[in-house]
Amino acid sequence: MQYAELNNGLKMPIEGYGVFQVDPKETERCVLDALETGYRSLDTAATYGNEEGVGKAIKKSGVAREEIFLTSKLWVADQGYDKAKKAFEKTLDKLGTDYLDLYLIHQPLGDYYGSWRAMEELYKEGKIKAIGVSNFDSTRLVDLIVNNEVVPAVNQIELHPFLQQKEAQKVMQEYGVKVESWGPLAEAKHDILKDEMLKKIADKYNKTVAQVILRWHLEQEIIIIPKSVRKERMEENLDVHDFSLDKADMEEIAALDGKYPRIVDYNIMDIVTGMNSSKTPE
Ligand SMILES: NC(=O)c1ccc[n+]([C@@H]2O[C@H](COP(=O)([O-])OP(=O)(O)OC[C@H]3O[C@@H](n4cnc5c(N)ncnc54)[C@H](OP(=O)(O)O)[C@@H]3O)[C@@H](O)[C@H]2O)c1
């Protein structure tokens, strides 16, 4: 497995398995399948309501905890110094672990400055190996960096061929923040997996369109965490480390950039009000 080196020297598998929209009742089975397939990085969040299933699968798998890179995220309802500390303990409890490899502020909404101070302390106490953010646009990211001590290790953002985030990537590189893609397959929406040009490239390498898209991320050293509830797709998505895209492929794919969000648009007021009123699952 290829690793990404974070700004504090921590090594994170460049590819992991995400569990957004995995039914809590199915999570244990899915994560067991993912670990069996070979994934060693898992991405969950308090708001997904499936941290317990992730924790159970880790225990049942027999894979040592220290061999797994475990990420979870702090939800909007838990923003602020005191609430963030409590929410972190709850997350540890649900996951059945005494530390996280990576803890992210899930959304740039609410009192995330208070949360960041709490997370900086937990990081210094060694309870979290790296701290980061998610869905921060460049201005919010840089504002957080210049007003705090610890620079986020990653920013997990919507990123796929239809939203390539070139400018945001440049800013993250400049400040030493690793780019992590969520929705690397654009959640299989907007017919991305039927795109003719991607299909042509896939045929050239005897791979699937999903594999070409994941490889496209890896060529740019972007961390990916594709989700599937199907074991054969977990295998397919991990089988992307034995080929490379050439310059011409990368140029062709660059032309697909629509430069606007296809899954979550933070300029829509209902998104912001909805997230602010959404409670963290008990
Ligand atoms: N920070 C955030 O705000 C945020 C937001 C969204 C996601 N995330 C994280 O990022 C992870 C990945 O993103 P995502 O789950 O939204 O989307 P994704 O990984 O881009 O796509 C998942 C979808 O694609 C399908 N799929 C997966 N592999 C496939 C393949 N090889 N061929 C055809 N279809 C395939 C899956 O269906 P099946 O399951 O039926 O196979 C599922 O519907 C999440 O699980 C979560 O951990 C974070």
From TrEMBL:
The keyword Oxidoreductase applies. Substrate binds at residue 106. Residues 21-256 form the NADP-dependent oxidoreductase domain. The record marks 73 as: Lowers pKa of active site Tyr. One of its GO terms (molecular function) is oxidoreductase activity, acting on the CH-OH group of donors, NAD or NADP as acceptor. PROSITE patterns: ALDOKETO_REDUCTASE_1 (PS00798), ALDOKETO_REDUCTASE_2 (PS00062). The keyword Manganese does not apply. It comes from the Bacteria. Pfam families: Aldo_ket_red (PF00248). SUPFAM superfamilies: NAD(P)-linked oxidoreductase. Keywords: NADP, Oxidoreductase. InterPro entries: AKR (IPR020471), Aldo/ket_reductase_CS (IPR018170), NAD(P)_OxRdtase_dom_sf (IPR036812), NADP_OxRdtase_dom (IPR023210). The active site is at residue 48. Belongs to the aldo/keto reductase family. PANTHER family: 2,5-DIKETO-D-GLUCONIC ACID REDUCTASE, NADP-DEPENDENT OXIDOREDUCTASE DOMAIN-CONTAINING PROTEIN. This is Diketogulonate reductase-like aldo/keto reductase. It comes from Jeotgalicoccus halotolerans. The lineage of its organism: Bacteria, Bacillati, Bacillota, Bacilli, Bacillales.
